[in-house]
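[#protein-structures] MJ: dropping Sigma-70 family RNA polymerase sigma factor here for a structure pass
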Amino acid sequence: MKHFSDEELVRLYIETQKNAYFERLYERYCDKVYRKCLSFTKDPLQAEDLTHDIFLKLVIKLGGFKEQAKFSTWLYSITYNHCTDHMRSPQRRTEVYMDEGWERLDLGADDGLAELAEMEAQKLKLALEQLDPTEQSLLLMKYQDNISIRELADLNGITESAVKMRLKRTRDKLRKYYLEAALFWLLLAIKAALSIRWPFR
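AK: finished. structure tokens for Sigma-70 family RNA polymerase sigma factor:
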């Protein structure tokens, strides 16, 4: 069964309703979906619950998979939408942190560079947290999961030019928030420097 593609497994599961085909898909994607949920919640128990919910939802939705996009892209879309809905609930704070791809820097043993990179990551994190969950999802799907413009358009039922426009607007907002976060860190650094020098004046 290992040699079957995702799409073949979906077709076989729909045709036969044999759990073995769905279980194979689960084995392939459970960890990836869990990590994506964890990037939204930062809570391992909540991420497990969300992962469980997503695969339950997947069983129901599999019959609607039209193969317009790769199965993995379609599953990530379900994952993002489910996590976004979860984050939108009133009792949740909108909070996403960067995982694979956002802060991959080869810093060597230079502690100064490591500290600088940590500050940059914090600024980016602050900026991301100010975006709407839908905007976060779009950016993360494009730049973390490398989902193509065409696939994003198919998944969202909009044109490729509309996806590009949304990405541009979201990047512009992220850049604005990032610069505001940078200013915040700069003011903190100045305040800290002044408080250190103050006794010597």
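MJ: nice. The CA atoms of residues 82 and 148 lie 20 Å apart.
AK: one more thing. Confidence is low (pLDDT under 50) at residues 93-112.
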